[in-house]
Design a protein that fits this description.
single chain; 100 residues
Length: 100
């Protein structure tokens, strides 16, 4: 079974091989991961039938995060109030559920 991305790559390669024009458009929603509210992510989980216990667990993960910045010997931490944690598999899933 081919994925949508694989199908796209095949079409672009075919166009280039036949010396045709291939046009691609990519949408970058600035700040999408950083500005998504916890309520919208949890509501999306509920909408998609995720068990209430899992929704509470995800909310606890989201609300329990802190961001820390260090410059030399100075360090500052703040509680994060919105956004998906980045660098894991949960963030893309949450974002996809929100925009679905």
């Amino acid at each position: 079974m081919e994925t949508a991305l694989h199908q796209l790559v095949v079409q672009v390669e075919k166009a280039l091989d036949q010396q045709e024009i291939a046009l691609g458009i990519f949408l970058d929603i600035e700040g999408a991961f950083n500005n998504t509210s916890y309520d919208s992510m949890c509501a999306a989980l509920v909408r998609h039938g995720v068990d209430h216990t899992i929704v509470r667990w995800v909310r606890a993960i989201l609300e329990g995060r802190q961001a820390t910045v260090t410059l030399g010997s100075l360090s500052r931490s703040v509680a994060v109030s919105r956004g998906c944690p980045q660098g894991g598999v949960l963030s893309p899933l949450l974002w996809c559920l929100v925009v679905d």
